[in-house]
Every structure is written in structure tokens, then in C-alpha cells.
Amino acid sequence: SNIPKIVILGAGYGGVLTALRLQKELNYNEADVTLVNKHDYHYFTTHLHMPAAGTDKTENARVSISKLIDEFKIDFVKSTVVQIRTQDKKVILEDGTLSYDYLVIGLGGEPETFGIPGMLEYAMNIRSINSVRLIREHIEYQFARFKREPHRTDYLTFVVGGAGFTGIEFVGELADRLPELCKQNDVDPSLVKLYNIEAAPTALPGFDPELVEYAMQVLTKKGVTFKIGCPIKECTPDGVIVGDNEEIKAATVIWAAGVRGNRLIEEAGIEVMRGRVKVDESLRAPGHENIYVVGDNSLMFNPEGRPYPPTAQIAMQQGVVCAHNLVASIRNQPLKKFEFKNKGTVASLGKGEAIGLAFGKKYKGGVAALLKKAIDIRYLYIIGGIPLVVKKGKFL
Ligand code: FAD
Ligand code: NAD
């Protein structure tokens, strides 16, 4: 048929928003839309620090894709993309091939290890449902192991690399969970160590210094030991080597020190910087009029020339504009320019505590924690309406 084919790779924040908007804006038979994702569920990356630490159920961090999209309007294919072939407009899946006229790439980021020895092999990452299941089980297992080998205090030492928002949110949750695990396993809490190790001269580099200080106070009180200005140089089976060759023996190392784009994009010959595509103002890849890139796979600069950080917030806004521009292309109408509207940043510090900058104001403590909850609920409402809010929104 002559109906244009749109293929969306990845059902993350960018891919789902693109699909939902296309489903709303396209007329009957105006395009064939296919959404491809590794899993048959969409997960809330922004929630993953909780199931990783074991302070919330994994189920609350995901929703089945069939509950989000209208499968009469969008074909969903559960498969893993293995190659993007721009020369013949094909996407190779682990179990098949798709051809496209328009492609949307929203495969999300991968952990950036900066080539640090041992990091890929020995550290875990907060990236997906499967990766956080592993972290949670691993942490619980260390307590059981320690009961059998009580001289091994390294089983009770937890290292989190990077004090960006991911590292900070995770140590907040883990600091809440560790005392519970001590109680359940009859372990003396004074034997447990939780380190958050940051290379830059401050935690949350670039964020409001007053809020950073507040966050560090709250977390320190909960038992987190910060090592700031102290790069992790190596990860080994026994722990990490930091700063001036100091060794910290730890059976658990979580690497939360950065994201890069997806390797499939550079392998496709599309120009990238650290795996991210410097898209044009309409969100297209340079030299590829028919390829759009959204979310962590894209790279955009603010008017001062600094890159926007890769967030769910920007991925969602890009999804909306990407869908608009796909429809406009098909209808031969002019494309829209993407302009990021920063709604602010709120980061949780564990139960009942958070910090945030929004509406030009600073928030901390319980008020910020409520704001965080409101943001989470708003997202559930945007993608799944009231039913999803009722099902996954935590009200207590
Ligand atoms: P993702 O959401 O990562 O989705 C990518 C999708 O592609 C996934 O479904 C994946 O399964 C799929 N996929 C990957 N590879 C393949 C393949 N080869 N084949 C098929 N499918 C594939 N941002 C905020 O704005 N606010 C927050 O509060 C916030 N909190 C965060 C908390 C944590 C713990 C973390 C880790 C991140 C947080 N972020 C937050 C950042 C935000 O989660 C990301 O920027 C966002 O998820 C990017 O969306 P995306 O659509 O690019 O990709
Ligand atoms: P990041 O890149 O923002 O932070 C990584 C941190 O690790 C940096 O502070 C960096 O200096 C540090 N680091 C790098 N190398 C190191 C080393 N060798 N040793 C020790 N520390 C090292 O990554 P992130 O925290 O995963 O965040 C990724 C994106 O997701 C960001 O855009 C962030 O804004 C967003 N995010 C937002 C929220 C929120 O809004 N609540 C939560 C999580 C993530």
C-alpha cells in the first residue's frame, strides 16, 4: 500500500508520548504506526530507585503497553532491535525485519562507564525492571551471607558511584531500607556502611547549592557517608579503588555516574556525541529527514549553548512535538520547532523528604516530597488517565 509507515523504536517516555499523540492526531488510514519494545511493558525509569532499594514493589514501576495504546490504531511488536539500516530503511529485530518511511528512535540511554576498569563487569546499574530486580535481590542476599560469615563486613558495605540525581535518590531509599534489613536479619546496624562517592567537588553539580547542602544533611543523618571530590578509578570483585588509590571493600557496587546514548545509533552510521544524536530544531537526525530522535538518545542545546540534561521531562515534550512533525510531514505542512519548557526538578531523598526547584522557587522536606508525588501522578494521568492513577499511584 501507499500508506506511509512510521516505526517507533522504544516505549520509554519519548516513544510512548510519540505513539499516544500519533494515535490521537492521525486520521484513519493516514499512516501505519508500529511501536517496537524489548518488553511488553513500559517502565517508569523515574521510579526505579525505589524497587532497586526494595522500598516499593516492582509492579508499581511498570504498566503493560496494551493498557496504554489502542491496538486498533498502533501495532505493538515485542522484540529487541538489533540493527538500524538507514540505507534501505529497515530495522532488524532479533526475530524479524520492519521497513519504515519514518523512524523514531527512543531507545533510551545506556550506562556510561568512561572506560573505568571493571565497571562493566562488577557494578550494577539502575536502568530497567530487570536491572533493579537484580540489585534488590543482591542486597537482600548480602545480609543472609553475612550471617554465615560474620567476619565479612564487606558484605554489609554498599557503594553508590555518582552523586547525581540518580545516585542521590537511590541512597535516600537505601538508607531507609537498610535498618529494616538489619532488623529482619538480626544484624547490628553499626556494621552497615553506605557510601555515596562523587568525583566532582560537590554532590549534584550545577544544582542549587542551598538545596544540595540540605540534601546532604538529610542523607548524612540517615547514615550515608559522602566522599566528594573523590573519583572512582576502578571496580574490582572486592570493591572499588577511589581517589588516591584508597580501596573500599564492598560486595555491592551500584554505578549511577552517568548515561550515554544507545550503541545501535552509532552502529547505524548516524553521527553522535557519546551515543546521542545532535538533532535539528524539528528533532530530526542530521542528514536524515525521515529519522526523528527523542529522549536520552537525543542531544539538544539551550539558548546559552549548554546541553539539556537527559530527563523524562524533555523526552515527553519531544514526543509530543515529534508526533506533530510526523503528521505535518505526511500532510506536507510546515514542521514545528522544539522548545523546551522547564517545569523544574524535584528529587526525592527517601520517605517524606525531597528537594526541588520549580515555579522559580525552592522546596525542601515534606512539601517537596508532596510535589514529587504530584509529578508522578500527573505522569500516570497523562499516559493512562484516571484508571492508571488509581492502579499505580501511591496515595499513602
Ligand atoms: P527510556 O525511558 O529509557 O526508555 C527506553 C525504552 O527502550 C525502554 O522501554 C527499553 O526497554 C527500550 N529498549 C532499549 N533498547 C531496546 C532495543 N534494543 N530493542 C527494543 N527496545 C529497547 N527524569 C525526570 O525528568 N524526572 C525524574 O524524576 C527522573 N528520575 C529518574 C530516576 C532514576 C532512578 C533514573 C535512572 C532516571 C531518572 N530520570 C528522571 C531520567 C529519565 O528516566 C530518562 O531521561 C528517561 O527515561 C528517558 O526516556 P527515553 O524515552 O529516552 O528512554
Ligand atoms: P548524571 O550524569 O547527572 O550524574 C552522574 C554523577 O556521577 C555526576 O555528578 C558525576 O560527576 C559523577 N561521576 C562521574 N564519574 C565519576 C567517577 N568516576 N567517580 C565518582 N563519581 C563520578 O547522571 P544521573 O544522576 O544518572 O542522571 C541522569 C539524568 O537523569 C540527568 O539528566 C538527571 O537530571 C536525570 N535524573 C533526574 C532525576 C530527578 O529529576 N529527580 C532523578 C534521576 C535522574
UniProtKB/TrEMBL annotation:
Keyword NAD among UniProt keywords: no
GO molecular-function term, one example from the UniProt record: NAD(P)H dehydrogenase (quinone) activity
Cofactor field: FAD
InterPro entries according to UniProt: FAD/NAD-bd_sf (IPR036188), FAD/NAD-binding_dom (IPR023753), NADH-Q_oxidoreductase (IPR051169)
Biological process, per Gene Ontology: aerobic electron transport chain
SUPFAM superfamilies attached to this UniProt entry: FAD/NAD(P)-binding domain
Domain FAD/NAD(P)-binding, first and last residues per copy: 5-319
Keywords: FAD, Flavoprotein, Oxidoreductase
Pfam families: Pyr_redox_2 (PF07992)
Family stated for the protein in its record: Belongs to the NADH dehydrogenase family.
Name of the protein this chain belongs to: NADH dehydrogenase
Source species of the chain: Paenibacillus taihuensis
